[in-house]
Write a structure and sequence with these properties.
The structure is a single chain. By secondary structure, this protein is an alpha/beta fold. The protein has a single domain, classed as Rossmann fold, CATH 3.40.50.1000. The protein has six helices and four strands. The chain has a four-stranded parallel beta sheet. Helix 5 links the parallel strand 3 and strand 4. The chain is globular. The N and C termini lie far apart (32 Å).
Length: 131
């Protein structure tokens, strides 16, 4: 299986690194996709020590999912997300969609509480032109 997390779904987890380590035991590839600039994904994954097999880079989520599916030939391709838009993009790219809460419950992952995580100043700058 190839498993992708939309960045907002990853942010909804109490310990993204532990989730990736757990997922590696039953998936072949696991990574992150997002419409956010590459540096936002990179900053988040570094901060949480998430080692990803792929990420969306400068592409949008749909194009990323299509490219990952073409590159990683596995029996299933599943996107974990948080919105109806995530579900629509997954379907359009030929991926299965799994809501974060359902994935967390099935896998025994802990969701982040209602407490706001310390905001990364680079993520909240509002600038999309910064590398």
């Amino acid at each position: 299986m190839t498993l992708a997390f939309e960045l907002e779904a990853l942010r909804g987890l109490a310990d993204p690194n532990a989730v990736f380590n757990d997922a590696r035991q039953w998936t072949e590839y696991v990574g992150v996709v997002s419409e956010k600039p590459t540096y936002v994904v990179t900053n988040f994954t570094r901060k949480h020590r998430v080692r990803q097999d792929f990420f969306s880079g400068p592409r949008g989520v749909r194009e990323s999912l299509e490219n990952v599916k073409a590159q990683f030939d596995t029996d299933r391709h599943v996107l974990v997300g948080t919105t109806d838009e995530d579900a629509d993009v997954a379907e359009a790219a030929g991926w299965e969609y799994l809501p974060l809460e359902q994935a967390a419950e099935a896998a025994g992952w802990q969701l982040a509480g209602d407490a706001d995580e310390e905001q990364d100043p680079f993520e909240s700058s509002g600038r999309d032109d910064w590398p």
